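Write out the 3D structure for:
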Amino acid sequence: MGSEVSIAAADLPRRVSELERELSDAHRREGATAQVLKAISCSTFNLQEVLDSLIESAVKLTGAETGLIIRQDGEVYRPAAIYGASPEFIEVAKQNPIPPGRHSATGRALLERRIVHIHDVFDDTEYSWVGREAAGVRTILAVPMLRGEIVIGVIGCGRREVHPFTIKQMELVQTFADQAVIAIENTRLFEAEQASKRELQESLEYQTATSEVLGVISRSKFDLQPVLDIIATIASRLCVAEDTTILLREGADLRVAAHHGAIPIRLNQKRPVGRGWVAGRTVADRQAIQVPDLTLAGDEFPLGRRLADESGHRTTLGVPLLREGDAVGCLLLRRKLCSRSPRSKSRCCKPSPTRPSSLSRTRGCSRQSRPARAS
């Protein structure tokens, strides 16, 4: 009995040291978890900040040297956050997205939707990922990020020496994976809500613009020019264009009938309908045409490129004014900077029963000569 007490007393300092270490580790885990949760709650607008915090905490608390988070991009998964890796590895990881498969730890986690723990990659005959040497790790832990049954990413941690992860460390990384899923889902829902609000705002803007045009029509029953002017002004505002021109077809020519913006153009100026400039091709092909940079259009738009050089504009969008399938004119939007117009903005420029394509049928074209206005 006395010998057992002596052995227990001799072992007491070691047990106390182990308990103190476990308590310290628990405090560190709780502190890191609280920090990540705070980042999730406060960084709705910055998912990258949350992912960076997650992978840093996962690496430090598991005693790993490197770590990464990959997220889905189509059929493959690309790095979303990396910690502790060399520039060489970062470049290799970016250039070699990971598909589900058994060639890597993250690939297996994607394929099998479970935790993958490789004690030594040199002893794993299936491990053949191209970034193995650049990573410089021997032991790897890969934990899938699951949203229901769908894998939306993987958290991976690596050690440069052969040193397997403990069960507690695996559980900790699993906790971080769960938190990453929450952060990603929160961001997705927030962005969807913001997109819905933007769509609603755009819809209201379009309705307001239509009301403005109808108001001008009601006050200008026998004068087309005020209607064309207000359409040019509204199109510039809604489509975020620096300049809008309305050209109406007269025989084989297009005549400048209305203009709004600072890029120079002469009212009533005529040019032949032809494929060498955006407005001419828009009318000839009876479809919308957008050129992101006319100065780089080469021989495809020779006249358009010359006009761009003279006027200083780069991006041009032409939308045909159609009446019963025939193009009676063109709505031309120009920008001085290269910027492709999104589909939603192009939609606001399509002709409707309240726009010039139908108005010209009933009123004819006013040919009053007016100086171009700049704004």
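The chain has two domains: 2-191, 220-363.
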